[in-house]
Design goal:
This protein is of the alpha/beta class. It folds into four domains: 6-14 and 408-622, Aminopeptidase; 34-217, SGNH hydrolase (Rossmann fold); 223-366, Rossmann fold (3-Layer(aba) Sandwich), CATH 3.40.50.1000; 672-769, ACP-like (Non-ribosomal Peptide Synthetase Peptidyl Carrier Protein, Chain A, Orthogonal Bundle). The chain is 44% helix and 16% strand. The protein is built from 30 helices and 19 strands. The strands form four sheets. It has a seven-stranded mixed β-sheet with strand order 1-19-16-15-14-13-12, with helices on both faces. Strands 3-2-4-5-6 form a five-stranded parallel β-sheet, with helices on both faces. A hairpin with a 2-residue loop joins strand 13 (454-462) and strand 14. The model is unreliable at 1-30, 546-591, 615-622, 629-640 and 763-780 (pLDDT under 50).
Length: 780
C-alpha cells in the first residue's frame, strides 16, 4: 500500500541553487556574480565606470564585458558570443539608429533584421535583455524626413520588443526625462573613436541602465504607507481645517506620483496621528486634493505609535513588513519606525517642499520593470476583500459564508498572456508557496516549451468580483517512477482557507490518474514565511493517511551520505523538476528543512474541503494574520533587507540625482595617487600648463600631474586619449588631432605646441582679414 503522508524528511538543505532571477530579493544576499554583457552599435566602453559605480553602491556583485565594436547582430546570432553564453545576469543592447543608416530602405531592413535576431536570441536564453535606444547626432536631427523615419521605426520596434518575453526597452525619451543632458554629443569623439557621447551622457546612460538592472534583480515593494500632515499637504488638518491646509505644486507632484504607483500595482495606505474625520475631510473637501480615498486600501489614523500601526496593517493585509515603504516628513516618527520596524523602507521627505518631486523620482525602490493586468487591479482586489471580511462577520457559520460567497474556481493551461503574471507569482508569493523557486518569464516559457514541465494556472471569482490569476502549478510526469512530481505549487494568500487549495491538490490527483500514474510527489522547502504551506500538507496528510506504519521518515544526520552525492544534488536543485534523490532517498542541499510528501493519486482525487474543519485543515485569513504577526516579531534581523538601504536611497535622491553630480562622485571615488615614474614631479607653472595638467588629472583620475609626465605612462590609452583631446579642443578652442598627443604626450610638450598653433591660427586669421580688407577696397 502506498504511503499517503510524509515519507522522507531531510535536514540541512538550502534554497541556494534553486533557479532564481532575483538574487537581490529581500533577505540575505548571496555573492552571486551578475554578468553584464554589453553590445552596442557605437563605442560604449565609457559607460563602464558608471555601471561599476552603481553596482558597487547597491551591492550587486558583478562582472562587465563588452562585445567588439558594432557587433550587435553577430552577438545575437552567434551561440558562442558573450551575450549567448551569459547564463547569470543581464544582456545590454545599445543601439543608435544613425549607425545603421545608409538609405531609408536599408535602414528599415536593418531594424527588421534586428527584431528577428532578438526573437531568435531570446528563445534559447533565460537571461533578460535590456535594449536601449540612444539619441542620434544633432546633425541627423536636421533632416526632417529622416527624423520622422527614426520615430516611426522606433515606435514599431518598441511595440514589437515589448511582446518578446525577457526583453525590456529603454527609450531616449525616458532616459532624457529622468536624467537630462543638454550637451550630450561629442563630435570629436565620434570622428576619432566612434565615441559619440560626452562623459555626462555616458553617466546618464549608465545610471539608467543600473536602475533597470536593479529593478530586474529585485523584488518590488508592495505597499506605500503615507503620513498625512506635512506629507500629503502642508499644514495640520486638525488645526487648519479641511480647506485650510495647503496643497502646493510639490505636494501635488507627490500625490500624482503616488497615483501612478497605485496604478502600477502598489497598495496605498495611510498612517497618521490624527482624528480620522479630520483627515478624510481633506480628501473629500479640499479642491486641490488629487489623491482620493478610492485609491486607499487601508489606514491607521489614531494616536498609537506608527510602528505599531504598520505592524497592524501588515497583519491585516497579510503581507510582510519588508514589502512596505513608509513616507513621513517628521524625523522623530521616521526614527521610531526605523528602530521598531527595521524591515520597512522608511523615507523622510526633504525639509524644503520644493525638493519633493526630485526626491521621489530618484528613489530607486519605487522602480518596477513591468506592470501586469493584476497589478492594475490590485487595489480593487483588496477593497473587494474588505467586503468579503464584512460578509464573513455577518455570517452565522463559515459554511454559510462560503455559500453566500459563491466561489468559482477555474484551473486551466497557461496562455501566452498569462506568462508575466505567472512569473510574478513565483517572485512574490511567500506564505503559501511550497518550494519558493523564483523564475523569470523566459525560464518558465523554456521549461514548458521543452516539455520538462507542464503548467496550470488557477483563477478564482465570487459574488464580489474576480480575484484574477491567483495560483500556479508546475509539474512533470515520469512513467518509469509512476509518479507526478510537483515542482511548484503556490497560491495567493487572498484565496486561502476557502477550499481552493484542496481543489488544486485534487486536480493534481486526477491529472496523475489520467496519465496512469499512481503517485503524486509534493516537495516542501522551508523558508521563514511559508509555514502555512507545511500546515496544509500535514493536515491533508493526516486526513488521507491510511496506515501509520507505511509512513517512512528519514533524517540526513542518521545516514552517511557521500559528499559527491550531496554536491550532485546541489548542482541540480531548481533546474530538475523532479524531487531529487540519492539512491532511494530524497535529499537537497543544506541549511533549510526539505520534506517530501507522497500521496496516492486516487486518494487525492477524493480529497474534499470541509468548512467545519477549516481551523485544523487549512490556514484561514486570521491564521495568516497571526502567522504574519509572529514573523514580524521573531524574524532575525540578520536575514532582513539591509537596514542601510533606506539611507542609500535617500542619499541617491538628495545627492546623486543628476549626471553631473553622479559623475563628480565617480571621479572623486576613482581618484588615485600619481604613480611612481622615472622622471620626478615638476608642478605646472603657467596658466596653460595648469589647465592642461588639470585635464590630464581629470581624464586619468589621478591627484596630480607634472609638466614632464607622459600621458601614456600615467595609464592613458586610446579611449582616454580621445576623451582628453576632446576636452582640450573645448577648453582651448583649437583644432587638435589624436596624433598630436602621441607626438607630444606631456603637459609641457602640448603647451608649447598650443602656442605654435595659436600663433599660426592668429597669423592665418590676420592674413584672411587683410585679404578681405583689400578685397573690400578693390570693390569700392
Amino acid at each position: 500500500m502506498l504511503p499517503t503522508g510524509l515519507i522522507k524528511k531531510v535536514k540541512d538543505s538550502p534554497e541556494a541553487g534553486q533557479s532564481s532571477g532575483n538574487e537581490l530579493s529581500k533577505g540575505k544576499r548571496e555573492k552571486i556574480i551578475q554578468n553584464i554583457a554589453i553590445a552596442a552599435s557605437f563605442t560604449s566602453e565609457p559607460v563602464k565606470d558608471t555601471l561599476e559605480f552603481w553596482m558597487q553602491e547597491i551591492g550587486i556583485f558583478h562582472s562587465i564585458e563588452f562585445a567588439p565594436y558594432n557587433q550587435i547582430f553577430q552577438q545575437l546570432l552567434d551561440k558562442n558570443s558573450i551575450t549567448s553564453q551569459n547564463q547569470q545576469g543581464v544582456n545590454l543592447i545599445l543601439i543608435r539608429f544613425e549607425d545603421w543608416y545608409q538609405d531609408d530602405e536599408t535602414f528599415k531592413h536593418s531594424v527588421e533584421e534586428f527584431l528577428l535576431a532578438m526573437q531568435g536570441a531570446t528563445q534559447g536564453s533565460k537571461t533578460p535583455y535590456l535594449v536601449c535606444i540612444c539619441p542620434v547626432s544633432p546633425s541627423a536631427l536636421g533632416d526632417i524626413n529622416r527624423v520622422q523615419l527614426y520615430r516611426d521605426m522606433e515606435t514599431w520596434l518598441v511595440s514589437e520588443l515589448n511582446h518578446i518575453n525577457g526583453v525590456y526597452v529603454v527609450t531616449y525619451e525616458e532616459l532624457n526625462r529622468t536624467y537630462p543632458v543638454a550637451d550630450y554629443y561629442d563630435p570629436y569623439g565620434e570622428e576619432e573613436g566612434k565615441i559619440p557621447y560626452t562623459p555626462s551622457f555616458f553617466c546618464a546612460l549608465g545610471t539608467m541602465l543600473a536602475r533597470k538592472i536593479h529593478a530586474l534583480k529585485s523584488l518590488p515593494y508592495k505597499v506605500i504607507v503615507l503620513d498625512c500632515d506635512n506629507t500629503l499637504w502642508s499644514g495640520v488638518c486638525g488645526e487648519d481645517g479641511s480647506t485650510g491646509v495647503k496643497i502646493s505644486p510639490p505636494y501635488q507632484a507627490l500625490q500624482k506620483f503616488i497615483i501612478a504607483q497605485q496604478e502600477a500595482g502598489k497598495l496605498i495606505c495611510l498612517c497618521s496621528k490624527n482624528v480620522e474625520a479630520d483627515v478624510f475631510a481633506v480628501f473629500e473637501q479640499h479642491p486641490d486634493m488629487l489623491l482620493k480615498t478610492d485609491r486607499v486600501v487601508n489606514w491607521r489614523i489614531n494616536w498609537k505609535t506608527k510602528s505599531e500601526n504598520l505592524k497592524s496593517l501588515a497583519a491585516e493585509l497579510q503581507l510582510g513588513l519588508d514589502s512596505f515603504i513608509f513616507i513621513d516628513d517628521n524625523p522623530v516618527e521616521c526614527g521610531e519606525v526605523k528602530a521598531n520596524c527595521p524591515q520597512v523602507l522608511t523615507l523622510q521627505l526633504p525639509k524644503e517642499c520644493e525638493q519633493i518631486p526630485q526626491f521621489i523620482q530618484h528613489i530607486w525602490a519605487f522602480d518596477q520593470i513591468q506592470v501586469t493586468k493584476e497589478d492594475q487591479k490590485r487595489t480593487e482586489l483588496y477593497q473587494q476583500n474588505v467586503q468579503r471580511q464584512r460578509l464573513h462577520q455577518k455570517s452565522l457559520t463559515f459554511t454559510d459564508f462560503l455559500t453566500k460567497l459563491g466561489l468559482e474556481i477555474e484551473i486551466s493551461q497557461m496562455k501566452p498572456e498569462d506568462l508575466p503574471r505567472v512569473s510574478q507569482l513565483t517572485q512574490r508569493t511567500n506564505q503559501f508557496n511550497f518550494t519558493t523557486i523564483r523564475r523569470s518569464e523566459v525560464e518558465i516559457q523554456q521549461l514548458c516549451d521543452s516539455g520538462m514541465l507542464e503548467c496550470r494556472v488557477v483563477r478564482v471569482k465570487d459574488r464580489f468580483g474576480d480575484y484574477g490569476l491567483v495560483g500556479l502549478m508546475l509539474f512533470s510526469s515520469n512513467d518509469n517512477d509512476d509518479v507526478l512530481s510537483v515542482d511548484t505549487f503556490l497560491l495567493s494568500c487572498r484565496v486561502l482557507g476557502r477550499g481552493v487549495e484542496h481543489r488544486v491538490v485534487s486536480y493534481l490527483g486526477k491529472t496523475a490518474r489520467d496519465k496512469g500514474l499512481s503517485k503524486v510527489n509534493l516537495l516542501y522547502q522551508q523558508t521563514q514565511k511559508n509555514k502555512p504551506a507545511l500546515d496544509f500538507l500535514e493536515s491533508i496528510s493526516e486526513k488521507l493517511k491510511l496506515d501509520e506504519c507505511n509512513q517512512e521518515k528519514y533524517n540526513q544526520e542518521d545516514r552517511d551520505l557521500r559528499m559527491d552525492n550531496v554536491n550532485t544534488v546541489i548542482a541540480t536543485i531548481g533546474s530538475n523538476p523532479k524531487p531529487l534523490k540519492v539512491g532511494n532517498e530524497c535529499v537537497t542541499p543544506k541549511n533549510n528543512t526539505v520534506e517530501l510528501f507522497q500521496f496516492s493519486s486516487t486518494a487525492l482525487t477524493r480529497l474534499t474541503f470541509n468548512p467545519n474543519q477549516v481551523e485544523t485543515e487549512t490556514p484561514s485569513p486570521q491564521d495568516l494574520q497571526q502567522n504574519n504577526s509572529q514573523q514580524i516579531e521573531t524574524t532575525n534581523t540578520s536575514d532582513l533587507r539591509d537596514s542601510s538601504e533606506g539611507i542609500i536611497w535617500e542619499r541617491v535622491a538628495k545627492e546623486l540625482y543628476t549626471p553631473e553630480l553622479i559623475l563628480q562622485e565617480i571621479l572623486y571615488r576613482q581618484q588615485r595617487q600619481r604613480p611612481e615614474l622615472e622622471i620626478g614631479f615638476v608642478a605646472p607653472r603657467t596658466s596653460v600648463e595648469k589647465a592642461i595638467a588639470s585635464l590630464f588629472a581629470e581624464v586619468l583620475k589621478i591627484d596630480r600631474v607634472g609638466i614632464n609626465d607622459n600621458f601614456f605612462e600615467l595609464g592613458g590609452n586610446s579611449l582616454s586619449a580621445t576623451h582628453l583631446i576632446s576636452r582640450l579642443r573645448d577648453a582651448f578652442k583649437l583644432e587638435l588631432s589624436l596624433n598630436l598627443l602621441f607626438e607630444f604626450p606631456t603637459v609641457t610638450g602640448l603647451a608649447e605646441s598650443f602656442q605654435v598653433l595659436q600663433t599660426t591660427t592668429q597669423h592665418i586669421s590676420s592674413s584672411i582679414a587683410d585679404t578681405e580688407d583689400e578685397y573690400d577696397e578693390g570693390v569700392l
